[in-house]
Amino acid sequence: MDEKPTLLAEQITTRKKYSVLLVAVTLIVAFDQCTKWLVRENIPINTSWLPDSLNWLSPYARITYIQNSGSSFGMFQNAKVFLAVLAVLIILGAIYYVVTMDFVDDWTMAAAGLYIGGAIGNLIDRLSIGSVTDFVSVGTFYIFNVADASINVSVAMLILIVFIHERRKPTMSTPTEGEIS
Catalytic: which of 52, 102, 105, 134? Predict the structure, then answer.
């Protein structure tokens, strides 16, 4: 009789765990695609824009609409098929990693959701328009989008999560000569 409540509790925990992942993926893809659409519809390509009241911010941050046919930092230009296949493999790898991890909490699932959502957002652009819409320009740094930012934040989160998890693991100490019996 005790088996049934335990199984039910495991199912609820599993649903909750994956719902965090799905919500994060859905929100990132939706926000990414919405912002890209707004930029494509309202700003001419290869131009920058800021509201007049924020012109003082122009040397530091602005919206600059470009189409990137490559990957991060403009590498691998015009490698659409290669980058699309790579994105699918990365998405599948990330899903596999999350499903097979020995420890998974809400933060890990949120970070994975940010990563997978960002990869899906850029993949949608590659498949639908042939390149990725980038528009966030900060200083002289490369121009990026919500999906790129999401991927970068997720990697930082995952590094921090793994670091914290490893620090919390009990250490196996070698017994000293006096402790051996």
Answer: 134
At position 132, the amino acid (one-letter code) is V
Structure tokens at 20: 């965090």
- Dump pLDDT digits (tens) for 17-39: 789 999 999 999 999 999 999 99
Residue from 105, 178, 118 nearest 147 by CA: 118
Determine whether 134 is an active site residue.
Answer: yes
**What's the CA gap between 57 and 168, in Å, rounded?**
43
Q: Helices marked H in the chain — which ranges?
A: 3-42, 80-100, 106-129, 146-168
pTM of the model: 0.80
Q: Which of 2, 102, 106, 148 is catalytic?
A: 148
| Length of the chain as a residue count | 181
* pLDDT (tens digit per residue) in 107-139: 999 999 999 999 999 999 999 999 999 999 998
Q: In angstroms, rounded to a whole number, what is the distance separating the alpha carbons of residues 33 and 27?
A: 10
